[in-house]
Fold each of these.
Amino acid sequence: MSEPGAKAFPDAGIDFRQLFDAAPCGYVLAERDGRIIRANGTFAAWIGRPAEQLVGQRFSDLLPIAGKIFYETHFAPTLHMLGSFSEVAFDLVDASGERLPVLVNATGGLHDGEHVQILLAIFRATQRRHYEQGLLDARDKAEATVVSERATSELREQFIAVLGHDLRNPIASIASGIHMLAKETLSQRGSRVVELMGGSVLRATALIDNVLDFARGRLGGGITLDRDAEEPLEPVLRQVVAELRSISPKQTIETRFDLNEPVDCDRMRIGQLLSNLLGNALTHGAKDQPVAVEASTAGDELVIAVSNAGQPIPAEALEKLFQPFFRGDERLKQGLGLGLHIASEIARAHNGTLVARSDAVATTFIFTMPLAI
């Protein structure tokens, strides 16, 4: 990919290099690995650093931790496979540490059929933030008008209907389509795309479950249980592990199950609890170390423990870890912050406990509940 035009237009006297630098949107030219070759003056001004200081840095270095993970695991691989990406929302971190919401369009430059460079066109996402603020204002106004038990009940039913129907049904259709495509003979790239789509569907389904449970709890419904001591719990736990292995095939998950006694529990809820804990461990644990999952029935208790290596969680963050929307530690600033909160609510609904321990060796979440009511 050649450098943006350095020659002036002969008749009009237009310097296209100057147009590139002074464009109202940000432009970044990067190597295939995201390392910046050149950034225009508009983008440099947004970041608050001279353009020459940005050269050599990776674009993902300008993103918060959640943005880095999304860029490396989804944005970059998809861009290299498809050749372009449109209207992707990121938060840039400027020189003062403030976040700048932007929308990014990306195109991969070709040389001998290979994507060798990336051109990013970046726009300020002012309208998106106005839209989000409008949603927050609408929510506050709605909460102010919900003053009666009947109004609260109607709001709960409408919210549940949106999540249960308007979101679940399209996701179920997508999952069905992915399942059908997986049976076809696909190219290596096609198989990878189907795999990425399948992982996204699993994450979206889990996110809906967490938001739905949180809404029920806040609107008076609480965590509902369908307890049954007749059916075994282990197959559900193994299915959860298998699903998360499919999403993170490069990470090792070691399991040890010793479930010899019946457990009077809601098996699907316990599976949701394990999914939230294991997903958290895979996201925040050391990528080169295995995540350990242990489940056992000892004495009169069920114990499930999930451990991962990596940087320990600070003591002050441990105290608030199960609060909804908690954002105390930089490594936790992704997702909605509801997974651990919902896991703790599921534990409480089973008359159990969920605790976290973290040191230089490992971070471990331990769920304990009585085998019988």
Amino acid sequence: MLNSKTQSGEDSLNLSQAETDALFAVVSEQLGLNTFNPDDQDLLKQMIESMGDSRGMVRLSFAEALGKIGKPAAPLLMEAVANHPNPVVRRASTKTLTLIADPIAIPTLVKALLNDEDTVVKASSVGALAKIGKAAVPALLKILASSEYPESAKGYAVWALGFIGAEAKEYLYQEINSDSPEVRAAVVGAIAKIAEEGAFNILVNALTDQSAIVRCEAAAALGSLTYRPAIHNLIELLDHADWETRKAAALALMKIGDGAALEPLQAALTKEGEAGVQAVFQLAISQIERQLEEDAWE
């Protein structure tokens, strides 16, 4: 045994730096020769425990080795994420599960995202969920739809859905009619990553959603995509009763930068009562005018 401590319990897993280095040398050689035994639970546990080493490169080396081992290591990594007292080991374990991307880890990663006290573990968990991809989408949508979970967790879920993008479209297209405005807004944000006509149609339709957060998310997405066929729809929103919607529409028109929006923006400015929205209208007008001038010189 590499470890001179043979008594039972956690102490048997604690290696000195010299023992840790020796362990990695053996593991590396076995992986190189394709002789590593993935059923050796004790060895896998020692590798996971070694990810608590104070040396960052050592932690990274073991994470990469466990990533190469793949799915046989996933259950023990999940156990470490769920129960290990050392946050450094939990962090490294979630990052290693990102490398493996096995859907079996989804419940463990969701629990860590929602409950772990360490923010790095939370972030690494959602990174692993994003890397798993399509299989993680229902769990992410469930987080968004629940009133029990904090906004921080929902923000992570929105990011993950956007990262998954086109791979998740089967679920996203179904959930665009969700009863939850948070889900619809997240779906709109994620759909913006899908460059196909069906996605653009959904974004344009979302401009008339009953929820302001959905309308604003759709406007922001169409502006970022500079989707010119939506200009007429965005112009209509300049007279919307909700000031946040008017502001979002103006910003989107500014990003698209088409001269067709100038006159409607100027007309809307004369009627606008919100000082903050007036400033956005003025900015949009000046930016579009500048863009038109630059185009004229080209």
